[in-house]
Amino acid sequence: MFIHNVEQGTREWLDLRRKHISATDIAKLAGLAGYTEKMFCKSMQQFIEEKTGEPKAIDNAFTKWGSERESTILAKFNKRFGCNCQPLVASNGELLSSFDGIDIDKKTIVEVKTTNLDGKTPLDLKELLSYYSVQVLAQLTVATNDWDYNCYLAVEHRGGAYGNFKAGATLYYSIDFNVDESLILIMEIDNPFAEPIKLKMPNID
């Protein structure tokens, strides 16, 4: 893992993302094989245009809110799980990962998200968590060659109207990768009696 001394959201970071395949790219490209719903997919044409054109930031109320909430959600995660996960930009060959939080000493990765959970069906939630979990899989590939890391999602409910969002409860999920059976297992930590979501692990080589 090669660590890049750049701040996420800067021009230098955008240029670095253009030159590499990011964890987000992996998750969206996996949708081309039907792994996630179309809303999460990235066409090959889009992918080529992004990698050959000028680096561009997505700037809207959703991304602004997510950026504003990220440090607060990460601090709550660290307090609850006794970690010191911090943002980090790192690469491993062609893959690049912008970790929302990683604690190398405690081998812990957390992906922080904000989304509107109102009215989402179990299938909707499964698709959403599928997309997020592939991002974490790509991050794990960048961070290490073993499967020893503890991987989590911290998903905060985004309430309110567009441009006037409000923070709600945060749901925490553990993500386990069963390499032998090529499965991703996602479990809501505060709902231990629920059945885990089981997903076929995509081949991101």
Continuous helix count: 5
- C-alpha termini separation: 16 Å
Unreliable sequence segments: none
| Series of H and E elements | EHEHHHEEEHEEEE
The Rg value, from CA coordinates, equals 16 Å
Overall residue-averaged pLDDT value: 86
What does the overall shape look like?
Answer: globular
Q: What's the main sheet like?
A: 9 strands, mixed
What is the percent of helical residues? 25-40%
Sheet/helix structural class: alpha+beta
* Total strand segments: 9
Kindly report the oligomeric state of this protein: single chain
Strand content: 25-35%
Give a brief rundown of this model.
The protein is α+β, with helices and mostly antiparallel strands and 205 residues long. Helix content is 34%, strand content 32%.
Task: Please supply descriptive tags for the structure shown above.
globular, alpha+beta, 5 helices, nine-stranded mixed β-sheet, 205 residues
How would you describe this structure to a colleague?
With 205 residues, the protein is α+β, with helices and mostly antiparallel strands. Helices cover 34% and strands 32% of the residues. Strands 1, 2, 3, 4, 5, 6, 7, 8 and 9 form a nine-stranded mixed sheet that branches. Strand 8 (183-188) and strand 9 (197-200) form a beta hairpin.
Strand and helix map with partners:
Blueprint (H helix, E strand, L loop, with lengths): L1 E3 L6 H9 L1 E2 H8 L13 H9 L8 H21 L4 E7 L2 E9 L4 E8 L6 H22 L6 E12 L2 E15 L4 E6 L8 E4 L5
Parallel strand pairs: 2-4, 5-6
Antiparallel strand pairs: 1-3, 3-4, 4-5, 6-7, 7-8, 8-9
